[in-house]
Amino acid sequence: MPSTRRFRCCLVGGTFDRLHAGHHLLLNAASKNSEKMEIHITSDEMADSKSHFVQSFEDRRNELLNWADGRSDCKITVHQLNDNYGPAPKHATADAIVATPETRNMCQSINEQRIDHGLPALHIIEVTHLEGIEGAIISSSSIRNGHMDQQGHPWMTFEQRQSTLKMASALDNELKTPMGILFEGPENDPEIGMAAALDGLPTPHGAIITVGDVTTKTMLDMGLTPDIALIDGQTKRTELEDELKVETSRFQVHLHAVNPPGILTPSLNKAVAEALRAEQSVVLEVDGEEDLAPLVIHCLAPIGTVVMYGQPKTGVVVQYTSIEVKTRCRDLISLFEVE
After folding, report:
1. Among residues 205, 241, 272, 321, which one has the fewest Cβ atoms lying within 10 Å of its Cβ?
2. Share above pLDDT 90 across residues of the chain, in percent, rounded to a whole number
3. In what order do the strands lie in the sheet with 75-81?
4. pLDDT, position 241
5. Domains of the chain
6. Tens digits of per-residue pLDDT, 95-109?
């Protein structure tokens, strides 16, 4: 039977990046058993050593304070953690600490240090992990890697990934609007827009993905190879002349997909997922059209991925994969019709 004991002060430590359902389970377990809870979250320096895409300390702290707001049954404070143990080994008033299965050994190490300092061991409240919809554990790393949202839902459902989806006519105007930042440049000299786009890339950023033959060729002509390129041998739905086609030999991995205009196919979804897993540069040649591919890319890609595509007659559009962009793409895909 779970203990109903109320603790005087419970310690909680972690990174708490992109507060998710698993975090809520852990925090609720600590707060319901304690009169006071101290949450110690890793500093920016510590978090950066884990991933460059962890939210800032301020953002993580604010999310926790928002969660704590209005909870009158437990006094909650948030502090910065500058090392692996924090104040726990010498904390005189703490009597409990929360652990997940992989941090239990650290908590036991803390208790050994407390005993060496003449303090009683902390009661360890172990909280199990939550599983997402498709079985994987809900974790900040899985969210950063693009596999799930903060509730454990995939950004594209299994059914969507396995179905042929047709764009609803009502989305035509919506999808013609550039989704991202437009870097302007003349159509007859696309390197101007591309140079501006590359100069404007956020820091840090993940893989660079170009969608479209002109965008891909422009980057290659500038001496750079995108991590992933999607091409269909066309521009404005007209087949490119041989001298304007992408030199695919510049890429180490070659993939193919079939994807007719106005459609998202399982073939495209599978190829995009495979390209994102590759550790070498990838060219994905699409038999049909790749215009709608950014919707799939953003849903499947890690946070921080850069997607670049051309906007006819105006320049290059750059969109950085984020939770907000993933949400918008998921919402748009949900309006597609299953064929």
Report:
1. 241
2. 86
3. 75-81, 34-42, 7-14, 96-99, 123-126
4. 76
5. 7-144 (3.40.50.620), 158-338 (no CATH)
6. 999 999 999 999 999
